[in-house]
């Protein structure tokens, strides 16, 4: 069965008709040509497909597109502002937070969402004091980013980039 939906992707309203079983990832990549979210595992285990919906991290391979009708979807492509890289994007470049680059868009979207979560005071599993805003130590960043895997093991650069962006 097909349905017509509207997604606001990286600031532009996009209307499309698709099978109700279509994932958000497939709608973005195959129907709208937005290729920064990657299909890594297609099971929600690697984070390569991470996008932001309303500023929150979402694994787009696990979300049905129809469930996001009307949503504001931001991909790594949409983080730049008028040609100016987002601070997390700049930090990834400066800290070599990538090697092959396949996971990088998902890592960047996840980092942006994670920094917002931490800024709002959300604790993680390793947050020592739940009553105060968590300090973004390397352990805290690693825990919060643990859903995003990098096959090249560029984690040192990724964590360093996020530390810089947090400052």
Model description:
Pathway: Alkaloid degradation; nicotine degradation. This is Xanthine dehydrogenase YagT iron-sulfur-binding subunit. Residues 3-79 form the 2Fe-2S ferredoxin-type domain. It is a single chain. The model has no long low-confidence stretch (mean pLDDT 96). The chain folds into two domains: 2-78, Roll (Ubiquitin-like (UB roll)), CATH 3.10.20; 87-166, [2Fe-2S]-binding domain (DNA polymerase, domain 1, Orthogonal Bundle), CATH 1.10.150.120. With 167 residues, it is of the alpha+beta class. Helix 2 (87-94) packs across helix 5. A hairpin with a 2-residue loop joins strand 1 (2-9) and strand 2 (12-19). A five-stranded mixed beta sheet has the order 2-1-5-3-4, with helices on both faces. The chain has helices spanning 24-31, 87-94, 104-119, 138-144, 155-166; strands at residues 2-9, 12-19, 50-53, 56-59, 72-74. 31% of the residues lie in helices and 16% in strands.
CATH level-two architecture of the largest domain = Orthogonal Bundle
- Give the overall shape, derived from the CA principal axes: globular
Structural category is alpha+beta
Instruction: Please give the largest β-sheet.
Output: 5 strands, mixed
Oligomer: single chain
CATH-assigned fold name of the largest domain: DNA polymerase, domain 1
Head-to-tail CA distance between termini: 48 Å
Q: Give the radius of gyration.
A: 16 Å
Number of helices: 5
Low-confidence stretches: none
Q: Beta-sheet strand percentage?
A: 15-25%
Largest sheet, spatial ordering of strands: 2-1-5-3-4
- Summarize the helix and strand pattern as letters: EEHEEEHHHH
Helix content: 25-40%
The CATH homology group name of the largest domain: [2Fe-2S]-binding domain
* CATH class category of the largest domain: Mainly Alpha
How many domains make up the 3D coordinates? Answer: 2
Number of strands: 5
């Amino acid at each position: 069965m097909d349905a017509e939906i509207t997604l606001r992707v990286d600031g532009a309203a996009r209307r499309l008709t698709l099978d109700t079983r279509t994932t958000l990832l497939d709608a973005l990549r195959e129907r709208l040509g937005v290729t920064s979210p990657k299909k890594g595992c297609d099971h929600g285990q690697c984070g390569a497909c991470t996008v932001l919906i309303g500023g929150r991290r979402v694994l787009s391979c696990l979300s049905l597109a129809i469930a996001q009708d009307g949503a504001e979807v931001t991909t790594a492509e949409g983080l730049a502002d008028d040609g100016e890289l987002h601070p997390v994007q700049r930090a990834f470049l400066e800290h070599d937070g990538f090697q092959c680059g396949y996971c990088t868009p998902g890592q960047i979207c996840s980092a942006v969402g994670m920094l917002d979560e931490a800024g709002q005071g959300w604790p993680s599993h390793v947050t020592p004091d739940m009553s105060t805003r968590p300090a973004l130590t390397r352990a805290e960043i690693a825990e919060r980013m643990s859903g995003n895997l990098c096959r090249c093991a560029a984690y040192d650069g990724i964590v360093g980039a996020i530390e810089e962006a947090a400052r």
